[in-house]
Design a protein that fits this description.
With about 270 residues, the chain is an alpha+beta fold. Helix content is about 30%, strand content about 20%. It has seven helices and ten strands. β2 and β3 form a beta hairpin. The longest helix is centred in the last third of the chain and has 21 residues. It binds a DNA duplex (14 and 14 nucleotides) through α6.
Length: about 270
DNA sequence: TTAAGTGTTGCTCT
DNA sequence: AAGAGCAACACTTA
């Protein structure tokens, strides 16, 4: 689930609920998500610190603390951030729970334990060392930078969009949605796009990601809050294209399940 | 009941 | 050297 829009929603949730608050207690319930940091050290650093700000790059969430440390969160396939009211219990699959001095708190959960919890010096060093490309919604990203980010002309456009070292934030779901709305087949080669198609892909990418964030996709379960003419709610076998009614086609691209409309999306 | 599938990533092998 | 295949994991669906 957590791609750029989802992580941005988590960030806003954290920003609204945790910013300026002091962490009074730290509960680490699953050490397996910790990346190169011991539970003891993480607890020690988090406890009594205050959340100064939050930031996001692609699918990574950064939490800046007033002691100079930076908490880095990645949600894998099933992670979430939940806010907890006073006296709330610990949600199922919680890996890390932070309690604030007013009794409220947040829980970082991970059902499949594929995420990561780490500490870093600063965000830009982390982004560099993890070889992440520019954030897909970086306001300074222009069409030239976008084209450069797509990289090798021979790679399938869906693979290029999902490659975090080229462009950070887009995963399997949103790559399908973006390509559907841009009218491009998933296996179109990057080098075969003309300028008009590249520009349309770029504009569509930004519009789709922004709209998904603004609609708060996660707040209503999965897809209920999305426009009915998006592919996302029809991304399954036996579904029909919301534009033309053609049967949605399922395939595999770069080892990932892929859904598209063979009629609306050109090759 | 068992097996296959899954919104991620990173490693190995070609 | 880019791409396929698989492992990590735990749960859901067929």
């Amino acid at each position: 689930m957590p791609e750029l829009p989802d992580v941005e929603i988590f960030r806003r949730r954290l920003e609204a609920h945790a910013r300026g608050r002091a962490i009074s207690a730290v509960h680490i319930l699953d050490k397996r998500l910790l990346d190169a940091v011991s539970a003891a050290r993480l607890s020690c650093i988090l406890e009594d610190s205050r959340v100064v700000s939050t930031a996001r790059h692609g699918k990574h969430l950064f939490v800046e603390l007033d002691n100079g440390s930076l908490l880095v969160l990645h949600f894998g396939m099933t992670g979430e951030i939940l806010t907890l009211g006073r006296g709330a219990g610990t949600p199922r699959y919680t890996a890390l729970r932070l309690a604030f001095n007013d009794g409220s708190g947040v829980a970082i959960t991970s059902r499949r334990r594929l995420g990561h919890i780490a500490l870093a010096k600063d965000a830009s060093a982390f982004i560099r060392s993890h070889e992440l490309g520019p954030d897909a919604l970086d306001p300074t990203l222009d069409i030239q930078a976008f084209q450069a980010a797509l990289g090798s002309p021979r790679s399938a456009i869906k693979s290029a969009l999902m490659d975090q070292s080229k462009l950070a934030g887009i995963g399997n779901i949103y790559s399908d949605e973006i390509l559907f709305q841009a009218g491009l087949g998933p296996t179109v080669r990057v080098g075969d796009l003309n300028y008009e198609q590249r520009n349309r892909l770029f504009q569509t990418m930004r519009r789709v990601l922004k709209e998904a964030v603004e609609r708060g996709v996660l707040s209503e379960g999965t897809t209920a809050a999305l426009p009915g003419d998006w592919l996302l709610g029809h991304r399954a076998k036996g579904e029909r294209c919301p534009h033309c009614g053609t049967a949605v086609q399922a395939s595999k691209v770069a080892g990932r399940s892929c859904y598209f409309c063979p009629s609306c999306q050109v090759d």
